[in-house]
Amino acid sequence: MKEGTPSPDAGDLVSARKRIRQLEDELAIVKAASALYDRMAVVPPKGNQQSSTGSSSRASPPGGPASPRA
After folding, report:
1. Full-model pTM
2. Which of 18, 41, 52, 66 has its CA 20 to 30 A from that of 26?
3. Residue by residue, what is the 3-state secondary structure of 7-51?
4. How far is 43 from 40, CA to CA, in rounded Å?
5. Is the pLDDT of residue 54 over 70?
């Protein structure tokens, strides 16, 4: 086969390269999102009532601990 002559697989190669480029773009987006989440502060799940000292870490509700309900 001469150089520059399209082969029967040329279309498949073009499709494969296009898909590879698309996947690389998607991977770059996922890596950027992952880096963003890594920089965010970690918030403990609700219900976790122990702090590192073992005391309760729950905050009082607005209006104080024994606010009357209307």
Report:
1. 0.48
2. 41
3. CCCHHHHHHHHHHHHHHHHHHHHHHHHHHHHHHCCCCCCCCCCEC
4. 9
5. no
